[in-house]
Amino acid sequence: MPKLVSTTVWRITPEIVLALNDRLGSPIDSYVNGSQVWLADEESRDITLEWRLHPAAGYRLADGMSHYDLWEQVTTQLRAAVDQGELVLGTETRALDSIWGGLECFAAYGDEIEPATLATAAGETLGISPGAAGLVDHARIGDAWERSNGQVSIVYLIFEQLSA
Questions:
Q1: Furthest CA-CA distance within the chain
Q2: Residue 125 and residue 127: Cα distance in Å, rounded?
Q3: What pLDDT digit, counting tens, does each position of 50-92 carry?
């Protein structure tokens, strides 16, 4: 029996990236695959939320760029109103949606929370309501992403499960 996890998800936009930066600050971890991660305590609900910016399908790090510098490079340019389709990263110009597919938020540490409660908490924290919320099978999503060698969007897979 698959383990279903409450989650919320947003498609990538400059507003999502800037809200993350303004409300949660810099990520606590940055991965070579483009993922960015934050943890935020929801004291009123006695739970920690994990925020994960997922890479776009087929993501690869721009030449001349470190994955540790990606977040700062993107947020600095978006804050300066650089067109989201023309972000200069390393020696390349990239579109925002070629870097990240979207944002997911779920309870950290395997804690449980109802999808509606999570959607409310995440929306309040970010200041932007999620595009969808519900229960997903993270193992199935991770397996599909790994089988495709990152050529499928994790965010697409989440939305697909949430609409089923």
A1: 48
A2: 6
A3: 999 999 999 999 999 999 999 999 999 999 999 999 999 999 9
